[in-house]
């Protein structure tokens, strides 16, 4: 006999409880796709899923979500920064990958120290600071085995003169970093200020091992469903 609560089968109650929050996540993803028509809808959906999973698992809520699609060449604007509360696009920019990840296309990814390669997965931003690359933003990699060495590797967001569309036209690619998602100096300060202090960055590439094992993009519908609209920080 089915378990009952308030006269409804337990399975029905669970389905009802899941439907509203997951509908919110679907609605959010659809709004971000609309705000960034040039982005891959599949990547945006994965990023939203990952962000909702992190919140459902007890992480602090976020207002900003940055997405980097490293399946695109460095000569294309492959970084998007979204305001999740307003569901609007704040930045659409060029972004560098690590020198050992590839030339124009990033194809190799690493979590190892001194690899000078980009790492995949979900990151949470920390505080901004001024270092050897000027105004920069520390990040914590949240995915064991994929990016959890990011802080020790000093993988940060910073401005770099080699992130330049003129270089892309001359060399067939923008310059490369030591693994950091470097951006144009002209927008670095504003972008960092929009992303500092506990926001999320989702670094994507169709790497099958990561896609199959990431705890954030494979956390289960029940976990995703428990993250609701009320988790967006004002």
Automatic annotation (TrEMBL):
Keyword presence, Signal: yes
Segment forming the signal sequence: 1-25
InterPro entries tied to this protein: YkuD_2
Record bears the keyword Signal: yes
UniProtKB keywords: Signal
Pfam family, one: YkuD_2
Name of this protein: Murein L,D-transpeptidase catalytic domain family protein
Organism field: Pseudomonas brassicacearum
